[in-house]
């Protein structure tokens, strides 16, 4: 397994796909690792966008990140065309 594969892990619950949603802004992801990287943006950065070292928010805290995490099970799907996918280049 490569490092890239670790970031793109998918999770299931009772055979259904699981998504992670940010309680702060609604961002969703299938990857818990990439999702928690997103959540880091909500944790104590300075106005210049730099994390101040040696503060209580500087080390990654799994429990703190999970407080921002809503876990969703995808129970219903529908087929769409590729043109309907947002962010498609």
UniProtKB/TrEMBL annotation:
Domain of life: Archaea
UniProt protein name: Uncharacterized protein
UniProt source species: Halogeometricum rufum
């Amino acid at each position: 397994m490569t490092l890239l594969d670790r970031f793109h892990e998918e999770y299931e619950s009772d055979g259904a796909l699981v998504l992670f949603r940010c309680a702060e802004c609604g961002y969703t992801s299938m990857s818990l690792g990439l999702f928690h990287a997103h959540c880091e943006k909500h944790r104590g950065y300075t106005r210049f966008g730099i994390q101040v070292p040696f503060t209580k928010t500087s080390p990654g805290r799994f429990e703190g990140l999970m407080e921002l995490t809503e876990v969703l099970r995808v129970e219903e799907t529908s087929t769409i065309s590729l043109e309907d996918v947002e962010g498609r280049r």
